[in-house]
Amino acid sequence: MGAALGAAGNLGIKDDFRQRVQDLVQPGTSAILVIVRKVTADKVLEALRPSGGTVLQTSLPHDAEQQLMRALHGDDPAAPTWEQPASTGATT
Q1: 7 near 68, Cβ under 8 Å?
Q2: Within 13 Å of residue 88, how many CA atoms lie on the same side as its CB?
Q3: Which has the closest alpha carbon to 17: 26, 30, 8?
Q4: How far apart are CA 38 and CA 45, in angstroms?
Q5: For the chain, which has fewer Cβ within 10 Å, the N-terminal or C-terminal residue?
Q6: Is residue 14 helix, strand or coil?
Q7: Contact 69/7 with Cβ under 8 angstroms?
Q8: What is the C-alpha end-to-end distance of the chain, expressed in Å?
């Protein structure tokens, strides 16, 4: 969470959201950072429900998603990315 919160300051994540995360994640506790795209929030919440806990959610513009992925994974070409393959515009 430290890397994600550190990067968050440069990504446009609101200070109040960052503060809520910092307040909830205390020594001896844990957090899960879930980054999703093209899925409804309700489905993610339903899948997480059995684990209990508190869910905080926010959204990021595409360029901020890319910055976060680089902050978490560096320049590792095998790391997950949000980059989408270029569309050729051709249809079959």
Answers
A1: yes
A2: 3
A3: 8
A4: 14
A5: C
A6: coil
A7: no
A8: 44
Whether residue 84 is predicted with pLDDT greater than 70 in this model: the reply is no
- Rounded Cα gap, residues 32 and 39, in angstroms: 18
Distance CA 45, CA 52 (A): 10
Tokens 């430290």, residue located: 2
**Around 1, how many Cα atoms within 13 Å sit in the side-chain half-sphere?**
15
| pLDDT score recorded for residue 78 | 79
| pLDDT tens per residue, range 22-49 | 898 888 988 888 877 777 888 888 998 9
Residues ≥6 apart with Cβ < 8 Å to 36 = 44
- Of residues 54 and 37, the one with the higher pLDDT is 54
Q: Which amino acid is at 18?
A: R
